[in-house]
Amino acid sequence: MATDPPVHPYETLTAPDGEQADIDTEMVPVVRELWRRGYTTTACCQDVGEATAGVRAQRETPLGYGGNGFIAYHRGYALLKMPVLDAQRLVALLADTTTFGEHVRRPWRPGSWRVNVPLEPGGLAANAVLHLPRAQLPELVGTLRQRR
C-alpha cells in the first residue's frame, strides 16, 4: 500500500520497543518525554489540519475524509494517539496541574483538549485520540519534565 509523502519535517526516532518511527519535529520533544515516562504512543502529528490539507493537495485521488470543514476544525491542533490506559494516565497526571488542569477537564473551551476513544463494531478502540492546541506543545514538555 502506497503512503503519502510527509507534509511536516520529521526526525526518525527509535521507539522503546526498538521500532523506527518518523516523528514530526515539533512532536519530537513531547514523544521523547512520554516514552521516557513509560507511555506508549502509536501516532502523532504536529498540525492535523495543515497535514490533511497538504496530503489532499498532493493526491490525485480524494482522501475519503479531510474536506474543508475537517481541515478548518483541526488546523492548529496537534495529535497524539496512544493506548487508552496510557491516555487516561496522562490526562489524570495533567488534570492536577495548574497549566493543563482546565484544558483536560473542561472540553469545548478555548485551549481545551479534544479527547476521544472511537467506538468500533466490537466495542471501544484500543487507542485514544488526543487533539491539543499546537501552541501548547512546549508547555506540555515542560510540565511532563517537572512532574517527575
- pLDDT < 50 stretches: none
State the helicity in percent bands: 25-40%
End-to-end Cα distance: 41 Å
Q: Order of strands across the biggest sheet?
A: 3-4-8-5
The fraction of residues in strands falls at: 15-25%
Q: How many strand segments? A: 8
Gyration radius over CA: 15 Å
Helix and strand content put the structural class at alpha+beta
What do the pLDDT scores average to? 92
Q: Please work out how many helical segments DSSP would assign.
A: 6
The rough form would be described as globular
Give the SSE order as H and E letters. EEHEHHEHHEEEEH
Q: What this model shows, in words?
A:
This protein has 148 residues and is an alpha+beta fold. The chain is built from 6 helices and 8 strands. Helices cover 36% and strands 23% of the residues. The strands form 3 sheets. Strands 3-4-8-5 form a 4-stranded antiparallel beta sheet. A hairpin with a 5-residue loop joins strand 1 (10-14) and strand 2 (20-24). Helix 2 (48-58) packs antiparallel against helix 3.
